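Blinded run. Sample ID left blank on purpose so nobody reads anything into the name before looking at the predicted structure. Input follows.
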Amino acid sequence: MKKIVFFALALMVLVGAGVGGFILFGQKPKEGEEKVAEPPKPKGPPAFLQIGPIILPLVGETRVEQNILLVVSLELGDESTRDRVRPLIPRLNDAYLRALYGGISKGDVVEGQIVNVSAVKAKLMKATEEVLGPNVAQDVLIQNVTQRPAF
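Blinded prediction complete.
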């Protein structure tokens, strides 16, 4: 009788270890097949967080030639994400200014006297992902662009 109980107990331990190992390590993808992680789906309507206004002086050779004013909003997944991102607005402002000044010096952001809005949006989205991480902000919305000569 002791042998049967011992055999049943050993069998249950082996089955439990096999199931635990399968759950822990899972199935490996087949050759040429990769796992694709899907971003988390928002639970409600998107939430918007206004960042702004960002004032960007366009410096020429000897003086400030233009002042560019941008009003930017972030499209976030839901209200809880907006509440988590709101304290990070100063870091976002700093990242945006660094990205836009770098774009001005390279000539990406301003073409002649006109702001290239698609380049500005791409730079702002990249800066947003650096600060918040990927898949936190769905989009950067440029609400207003104002250019004024400084002289």
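Unblinding after everyone has recorded impressions. The mean pLDDT is 79.
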